[in-house]
Amino acid sequence: MTQPTLERFLDDVKHHEIKVHQNNGVDRHLTLEKSGGCYHSFNITTFPHYLVITGNMGALIFSQSHYDLFDFFRNDDLKINPDDWAKQIESTSYEAKINSYSEFDIDETKKVARKYLDDYLKNIALSHDEKSNLLAEFNRKILCAEDEWKIVDAIRNFELDNFDFEYFCWEDCRTHRYDYIWLCYAIVWGIKKFDELNQDGKNHGRT
Q: How does pLDDT run across 138-167, given as a tens digit for each residue?
């Protein structure tokens, strides 16, 4: 599945302006949006050990041992670390947390399943006919699956000549959500804009 690049994100926010509603130490509330419009607008709120981002691209709550999460996320080069940051997400349940940043990817599932089969074939001696039958059945039942329900059912119930997917890792079949990656970029970009605004204020004698 496609994910936003930094270039795509920057194009989405190229007309955004920053508005600071609160800036009291670690307690902050920022809005970043295009003047006169709300598309791709977002808010960043921080308080001790927490950062909350909300907007029409979704909402996420991050919690970390850092007192000020601006220090945790800050990156002037706008580099993001989606895997590590996902671990800091707060949610109502483990399943809800997983779904907040990742989603099932059928193409990735087919790749993982094929690697699982290839690893099996490397470690067992099959006749030419046995291997051909196994590959044909794999292609028919798994590679031809057209949606999540069908491929999950096919993998769970696949069995032929002592081969099955008993130890298949479903976690490898998920990819980051588009909106999650977008929000990661929004956090580092929003922090950078806030820092630039504060530096500009210092240069002009403002506090």
A: 999 999 999 999 999 999 999 998 899 999
